Each structure stands twice: as structure tokens, then as C-alpha cells.
Prior knowledge:
Layout lengths: L5 H53 L13 E2 L2 E2 L1 E5 L5 E4 L12 H8 L4 E7 L2 E9 L12 E7 L1 H53 L14 H51 L3 H28 L7 E4 H12 L2 E5 L3 E4 L1 H18 L6 E8 L2 E7 L7 H4 L20 H11 L3 E5 L2 E7 L3 H9 L11
Parallel strand pairs: 9-11
Antiparallel strand pairs: 1-2, 3-4, 3-7, 5-6, 6-7, 8-10, 11-12, 12-14, 13-14
Helix pairs in contact: 1-3, 4-5, 5-9, 6-7, 7-9
Amino acid sequence: MRPAGLTARVAAAAAAAIVLAVVLLGVAVLARLDDQLSGSLDRTLQARAVDVARLAASTPDLLTEPGTLEGRLGGSSLLVQVVDRRGRIVARSAGVGGRVLPDAPAVQAALRERRAGYGDARLGTEPLRLYAAPLGELGRGPAAGGAVIVAGTTAEIGQTIDTTRRFVLLASLLAALLAAALATLLARRALRPLRRLSSGARRIERTGSAAQRLPIPAARDEVGELASTLNAMLASLERAREAEQRFVGDASHELRTPLTALRGNAAYVARHGPDPDALRDIEADAARLSALLDDLLALAREDAAPALRGEPVDLLELAREAAAADGAADVTGTPARVLGERPALERAVGNLVRNARRHGPPGGRIAVHVSRDADRARISVADEGPGMPPAYAAHAFERFWRAPGASGEGSGLGLAIVRAIAERHGGGAGVDGARFTIDLPALTEASEAARTNGPHETTTPHRQ
Length: 464
């Protein structure tokens, strides 16, 4: 069974909410109305009983006069009955006629316990609300020490409650239908931009082109924000695809050059026999190809590397090792510890030193400096050359990019590897003239203590 659409679910939810709200309001209104009507009836009964009690105390002879006990409650007559201390009827209103008001518990309480009170009873088929109050025992009238009973029908209250209840039910149904219609209309209007987004997404899925964009709704609401976010994602995917295609093209070009040379030299050796120059070329091309493949694998490992599982590493120690490998680099600075993978950081520092040696003046001095600034640790490598022009600085860490007129052979991947390693460690890499710098989160004493207390935890530095 196909599930209901979002429009139908919104309409159903709106209708249900309106019905629930109207029903709850109706219940509250009915309870309040019943309380008000019943309270008004009770007050009327009590007021009439007080009047009769005063009359019995002041002029008891009037109790038996016609019309004395008559009273009105809305469109119906109040039923009044006066009894003596033995419960015998002394007087009653014309509305009672030949009937006798029920001997309810409230009547017995008024006669025996001398306590006034309310009660519910029936006179034939007519529901009654009655009030019984004791009469004074002093006096010469026959009702002295008796009680007055005042009753009124509750049929009108019941009819009013029933009419209100039917109105509430009808109002809830009409409100539910109106809410469902309005919710359907509003949901369709609200979902129209989403349908356009869905259609655009299906078109992009069919064509497989990340260069296309989703339509942006005119209203700058949540749907518009979603469309903008998705378009930004598509733009990012387009850039990633372009970078991937460019990377594949550059890698193919870089691999083709040594492979072509290898094939040519191999063919020459096969035709003319071993030749020292040809063998040296084969060896150089193989070394170049091996280095290029090694750099490509390093980049691939950085791209696909899992969450960082590091150890405390001293950048000053790494700088000294890289300087020793170079043989002519000078190291200055103070110890700066970071949390990282030592082999990856060794490769990044080594790449910077080799890059400085390759592009700096022959025999020039290479300076490696390590510093610590609050929660940041930095290692910089500089040569004595003129440095990179500011126009090229933005491209320095791109893959396969080489500055025009750059000296020496290189794949253009060394600095890209440096940046990938730095970013995976929560930092970054930058260039200022002839100085290349790796900036990483420093390992503080608090973080080292936390690592010591929890040796099994995995810590991933966050970029600042």
C-alpha cells in the first residue's frame, strides 16, 4: 500500500489538531456553562427559600394565602412546599398542584439535623433540583420547627447543554473540513518549490552533470536556503570533479614522460645492446617514475586516511632530523609538541626542506625554525632565494602545479602532500616569499594529561 503523500498528511494533521482543539474547548465551555447554569439555579432556590423563611417567621398566616408561595425561574414556575416539624405539608405553591415534592435526603437533613442543603430528585419524569432549609422553631405558625423546600426543573439546563454540545460537534466538523482544505492549499503552495527542486534533481541525476543548478525559489525561506545549500554542494562537486579530471590528466602526463623515455631507451638497448648512457637514463627515468608513484600514493593515503590516531611529536626534533638528512640546513627555535602521526609529519617537513634545496640558490643556506605561540605550533623552512611572487602563492600547494621557470625536476606534488598532511592534522600550510610554514595545534599540558589518563581514546585535533 502506497503511503499517503506529504500534502495529505499535513491536511490530516491540521484537521485532527483543529478537531482536538475544538473538542477540548467545547468540553471546557460545556463544563463552565453547566457550572454557571447550575449555580444560578441553586442561588435562585436559596434566595426563594430565604424569602419564605422570613415570611414564616414574621407573618406565618400568609403562608396559606393563595399566591404567596409563587415564584418564577425563567419560563417555569418554582415549586415551593412548606412542611411542619413532622413532615406534614402546611402549604405549597400552585405549581406543585396535587403532587408532593420528593422526600429527598436534603429534606430529612433540614427536619432532623436542622441543616440546609441541596439535592437532586425527580417529580414523575421531570428532573428537579431542590433546596431544603429549616424554619425557625420559635413562632406561633404551624410551620414552626418545620422546613421549606424549593425546587426547580433542570430540564432547561439539560436542553441548553445538549444544544451547546451539538453545536460544538458541528463546529468541530466544519472547522476540521475548513482546516483540511486550507492546509491542503497551503501545503501544495509550500511544496511547489520542493517539487521543482525534486524535478531539477532528477534532471541532474539523469544527465550526471554537476554543472547544472537547482532553481532558487523567489521566497527566501527554508526551501530557498535548502536550494542554495544544494547548489553550493553541486558547485563543490563540480570543482571536485574538475580537480579530479585535472589530476588524472596531469598524472597521466607526468607518468607518460618517464614511461616514454623508458620505452625509448629500452628499445635502443634492445637494438644496439647495453649502453652506459642509455642504462643511466633508464635508471633515472625509473627513479623519477618511482618517486612520482610514491607521491601519488602518499596523496591517495592522505585523501583516504581515517580519523587521526596520533602520538606526541616534537617538531624541533623533526626539524633536526630533516636538517641532518639535508646536511646543510640550520635549525633554530624552541620545542613544540603536537599530536600527530610521526611518519606523515616527517614526510611533510622533509618535503619542505627538499623543496627549499631544489628551488633555492645552489649551495645556499636553508633555515628551519620551530616556534610555539599559545595553542599553535609552527615550523618554517626558508631558503636564500627571491621567494615566490604573491601572484603564485595561491597556487603553490595545488597538485601538479609548478611555478613558471622553476628550476630542477619535480612532479609538483611535494607541497600538495605537505598541505594534505597539515590539514589532516587540524592545521594548514602557507607561503610568504621564500618561507614555507606548517601551522598545527600545539599539544598542551592539559591535553597530554588527558591522553595519559585515557590512553585508549582517539584524539583528533580541530582546525582553529
